[in-house]
Amino acid sequence: MLICPQCKFENPNSNKFCQSCGTSLTHKTCQQCGASVVLNAQFCHECGAECGPIWWAIIAQTVPMARVGEAKTQENASTGESNLAGWRPTVGSVRSPYVAGSYLDPQQRYQLLTDLPEKETIAANVEVKVRVLDCQPYQISPIEAMLENESPGLMESLGKNGIPQLAKAYIQLQSEIQPGIPLIHDAWEQDNMQVVLLDDRTNWRLLLDVWQDDTTSPLQILHWCYQMTQLWAILELVNCRQSLLELSNLRLDEDQTLALQRLYTDPLPNEYVPPITLKALGRVWQTLFRQSQKTQFGLIVQMLEDLETDKIETLAQLRSRLETIASELETPPVINYSSVTDTDSAATILQSDYGEDTIGKNDDTPTMVLSMQLSSLEDAGRTDVGRQRRHNEDYFGIEAKIQKLEYPKSRVLQARGLYILCDGMGGHAGGEIASELAVNTLRQYFQDYWVTNQLPTEKEIHTAISLANQTIYTVNQQEGRSGVGRMGTTLVMLLLQENQAVVAHVGDSRLYRLTRKRGLEQVTVDHEVGQREIKRGVEPSLAYARSDAYQLTQALGPRDESAIEPDVEFFEINEDTLLLLASDGLSDNDLLETHWQTHLEPLLSSSTSLESGVNNLIDLANQYNGHDNITAILIRVKVRPNQESFQ
Question: Which of 29, 55, 348, 495 could disulfide-link to 197, CB 3.0 to 4.6 Å?
Answer without folding.
Answer: 55
